[in-house]
Design goal:
The chain is mostly helical and 114 residues long. It has a domain at 34-102. The chain has five helices and no strands. α2 crosses α3 (53-65). The chain is globular, with a radius of gyration of 16 Å.
Length: 114
């Protein structure tokens, strides 16, 4: 095996997320997530309508694509879909009230989506 081949024991998503958070652009991306989550929290308080973390992810991704943040992924601006749940846990651990707005995907939701 050479040095560029992935190993069986590659870094976990959580480990990669922790490294990503240290990149310059990651802070701005996280701020975008928080801003949108707080918007949807206000909507939840008014109407009782929750949101999925995937919706927030796509809205952030769209803002990045539109050029609001221009940077290379090594600087943390690019989004990795695997980080969605990590970002959700990050936000809800710091702002527990946000737990109410996120839709949980249980076995029933998986069956309906199929």
């Amino acid at each position: 095996m050479n040095a560029t081949q992935p190993t069986l024991f590659a870094d976990s998503i959580e480990e990669r997320f922790e490294r990503w958070k240290q990149l310059p652009g990651a802070r701005l991306v996280m701020m975008m997530y928080y801003r949108l989550a707080l918007f949807y929290y206000r909507r939840f308080e008014e109407r009782g309508v929750g949101v999925s973390i995937r919706l927030i992810e796509e809205k952030v991704r769209d803002e990045i694509r539109l050029g609001r943040l221009r940077g290379v992924k090594e600087q943390g601006y690019a989004l990795n879909s695997h980080f969605s749940r990590c970002i959700e846990r990050h936000m809800t651990s710091r702002r527990p009230k946000l737990k109410k707005i996120f839709h949980e995907r249980g076995p029933e939701a998986e069956t309906l989506a199929a």
